[in-house]
Structure formats: structure tokens, C-alpha cells
Design brief:
nine-stranded mixed sheet; alpha/beta
């Protein structure tokens, strides 16, 4: 009678010359209240030999769920929530491969998409970062890249060949580890939001161009990385850190300090939206707007 294969035996059975290319990549997953993502991620990353989970002090069963869903992954458990960029920096330092693949827990990538990113990187050795085309859960393409940080249209013409761009979404990025070390990774002052925009600017200016490889497609289940009972708190933090990071980016890259008048104007507009959200009983978005007002 045949016996079921062990995890290591399964990995050996799946090893092919193409899959061995994945040895060049370390997948970095920053988690926070992300237990619900572990099962799908574990299946999609089964063939990836190098995975580091950096948990930002989740209070749910994220660590247990990821230990079960991807038992071969290395885990870095932070004692407090460090934010997206700072957590990724710890993963970059712990990695030992040529490339790091920054992947949101609510993204699903297969081996083919990863190999296509590697092929693009090999064909363009001067590039510091390669990004895939993101698609939503229905298979529709999102425009996850742009030539300016204030132009992120969700619709419009999409690239049909490898294209140099200025910015890409931080949901999925293949980056040369040496380039990340050269610029000392993410600016950790950005707790959440704009850290990917700031990173793209510094990488393109100091290390090499950013290329979109649209033949590589990655599914992004938008806003699915934090959930469960902490959903309202997560939305509040999104609103708070989004506006704070917007102010920081304007100061760092445009030498523009937001005036008290402009802050009060933001508060007034956000306050009006908060009232509307409450009237519509939209508690999730109301939590996010409340965070923006406080921010």
C-alpha cells in the first residue's frame, strides 16, 4: 500500500529546473490579523522554498494559522506593530537570496508568475524592481502602476509589454536585495501608505529603473489582509496613517509643510463624509474616515 508523501518529499517531487529558479527568491509576507489569508497563501506558495513571515504583533491566531499553512516558512514575530515598511526591512535583512518578493497576504501568486518576473529581471539587469500586473478576484486588471504618484487611475489602457514606470503598488514587488540594502530599505517614518511610493522614487534614482512585466499576473484580493474582529480598528488605522503619510511625503519630497488652515479644511471635509457614512450605517468606512479626522 502506498504511503502519503511527507512535506519534504512532496517538495522534492515537485522540483523541476523551472521551480529551482525560485531558489533565487525569498518571499516576504508582512502579517497583521491575517489568519484568514493563511490557507490560500499556503497553497499558492507551496513550491517556494524561501518564505519569511514578519508578523506585526497580531492578537488573533495569525502565527498559528501560518505555521499550519506554511510550516517551512521562517517566522519573525515583532513585539509591537512596526508598520509595513519597517517589518519588510527586517525581512530583507534576514533574507539571503538574490531577490526579495514583497507580497501582501491578500495576494495570490503562482510559480509561473514568479518565473516571469525573474525572466524580466534577467533580461534587464539594470532594473532594480520588477512588478506584475495585478488583477482583482474577478480577473479584471487593476492599473497598479503610474508615471506620477498622484495618478493612479483604476481604469484605462494597460501595458501589453515590459514597460518602464515610475511607481508601482507595494502589494507585489520583486526587488534586487542588493538594491534594497544600498538604499537602506523602506523609510520607517512611513508607518503605512506612501512607503511604496517613496521606495520607488529612491530605487529608481539610486539603483535602476522599475519595470512592469504585464505577462506576470498576480491576484490581489484588495483590503483582505487584515480582517476578523479587528476590522474596524484596522480601517481606523488606515485612515489615520494615510493622511499622516501624505503630509510626510509632501514634506520629504516637495518641501511642502501642510498649513494649519489646510489641516482644518481636510478635517471639515472628512467630518462631513463621516456624518454621511454614519447616516448610511457604513460603519467600516466611517471608522476609516474617523481615523483620517484624527490624523
Amino acid at each position: 500500500r502506498s504511503q502519503p508523501l511527507s512535506t519534504d518529499a512532496k517538495m522534492s517531487a515537485m522540483t523541476t529546473p523551472a521551480n529551482r529558479e525560485l531558489d533565487r527568491i525569498t518571499v516576504l509576507l508582512v502579517t497583521y490579523q491575517s489568519a484568514h489569508c493563511a490557507s490560500a497563501l499556503g497553497k499558492s506558495l507551496e513550491a517556494f522554498p524561501n518564505i519569511i513571515v514578519i508578523d506585526n504583533a497580531s492578537s488573533d491566531n495569525t502565527l498559528e494559522a501560518f505555521a499550519q499553512g506554511m510550516p517551512r516558512a521562517k517566522v519573525i514575530a515583532n513585539e509591537r506593530n512596526l508598520g509595513f515598511g519597517a517589518a519588510n526591512n527586517r525581512g530583507v535583512l534576514a533574507a539571503e537570496t538574490e531577490f526579495v518578493l514583497l507580497l501582501n497576504p491578500d495576494c495570490i501568486i503562482d510559480t509561473s508568475a514568479a518565473q516571469q518576473l525573474l525572466q524580466c529581471a534577467d533580461a534587464n539587469p539594470c532594473a532594480s524592481m520588477i512588478a506584475p500586473q495585478l488583477i482583482d478576484r474577478h480577473g479584471n486588471a487593476d492599473k497598479n502602476y503610474s508615471m506620477g504618484h498622484n495618478t493612479w487611475p483604476a481604469k484605462g489602457p494597460l501595458a501589453d509589454a515590459d514597460t518602464c514606470v515610475r511607481f508601482v503598488s507595494g502589494a507585489c514587488m520583486l526587488i534586487r536585495r542588493d538594491a534594497m540594502l544600498k538604499i537602506k530599505g523602506f523609510d520607517e517614518r512611513f508607518f503605512l501608505y506612501y512607503e511604496d511610493t517613496d521606495l520607488c522614487l529612491r530605487l529608481s534614482e539610486q539603483c535602476g529603473e522599475i519595470i512592469l512585466a504585464p505577462q506576470s499576473r498576480v491576484t490581489h484580493l484588495s483590503r483582505g489582509s487584515s480582517g476578523g474582529k479587528a476590522r474596524f480598528n484596522a480601517e481606523y488605522l488606515r485612515g489615520y496613517h494615510h493622511i499622516q503619510s501624505k503630509f510626510l511625503f509632501a514634506l520629504k519630497h516637495h518641501q511642502v509643510s501642510v498649513s494649519p488652515f489646510k489641516r482644518w479644511r481636510y478635517c471639515l471635509v472628512a467630518g462631513l463624509e463621516l456624518c454621511i457614512r454614519l447616516l448610511l450605517l457604513d460603519a467600516v468606512r466611517a471608522s476609516r474616515v474617523l481615523g483620517r479626522v484624527v490624523g
